Amino acid sequence: MAAEPDPSVELAIVTMRFDAADPASLLAVLSKYVVLTRMEPGCRNVDLCASYTQPGRYLLIQKWDSTDAQRAHFDSPIMVEMAKSCAGLLAAPPDIDLWDGPSAHDLR
Predict the structure, then answer these.
(1) What is the CATH number of domain 12-100?
(2) DSSP for 26-84?
(3) CA–CA separation, 58 vs 49, rounded Å?
(4) C-alpha to C-alpha distance for 57 and 71, rounded to whole angstroms
(5) Under a CB-based contact definition with an 8 Å cutoff, are residues 46 and 60 in contact?
(6) Checking DSSP bridges between strand 43-50 and strand 57-64, what pairing results, if any?
(7) Dihedrals φ, ψ of 74, to 5°?
(8) Fewer CB within 10 Å: C terminus or N terminus of the chain?
(9) Model-level pTM?
(10) Closest by alpha carbon to 55, among 21, 29, 94?
(11) Edge-to-edge strand list for the sheet holding 43-50
(12) Are 4 and 100 within 8 A, CB to CB?
């Protein structure tokens, strides 16, 4: 029988997938966003990945101390600036998802 997640451990994971119409310009925007986001309160880490199989596809993986920290970031000037800077650089709207991080829970 699986253990219930420890409610004292909270981890919010966000993925954002971008398909670029202008890969070089989008990469510049996302790189700046990663650096600034890593300094945000509650941010544990942000990784920027480029797809080997889909040229021009980028994935951001963010880990936050809590869903409250993640939500605050999504309303922050850093996030708004990044979103505005993506205008005209994307082939399609980004795919954004919020994940639970069960590996962070005590699974004894």
Answers:
(1) 3.30.70.100
(2) HHHHHHHHHHHHTTSTTEEEEEEEE-SSSTTEEEEEEEES-HHHHHHHHTSHHHHHHHH
(3) 6
(4) 24
(5) yes
(6) antiparallel
(7) -65, -20
(8) N
(9) 0.84
(10) 21
(11) 43-50, 57-64, 12-19, 95-100
(12) no
Are 100 and 107 spatial neighbours (Cβ–Cβ below 8 Å)?
A: no
What are the structural domain ranges in the chain? 12-100
Token pair for 20: 């670029």
Amino acid symbol at 55: P
- Distance in angstroms (rounded) separating the CA atoms of residues 45 and 37: 8
Q: Which residues are registered as beta bridge partners of 60?
A: 16, 48
- Is the Cα torsion angle 19, 13, 97, 41 positive or negative in sign? negative
- Token pair in block for residue 63: 């880990």
Per-residue pLDDT of the chain (108 residues; tens, 9 = 90+): 444 444 555 789 999 999 999 999 999 999 999 999 999 999 999 999 999 999 999 999 999 999 999 999 999 999 999 999 999 999 999 999 998 766 655 544
Name the residue with tokens 């909270």. Answer: 10
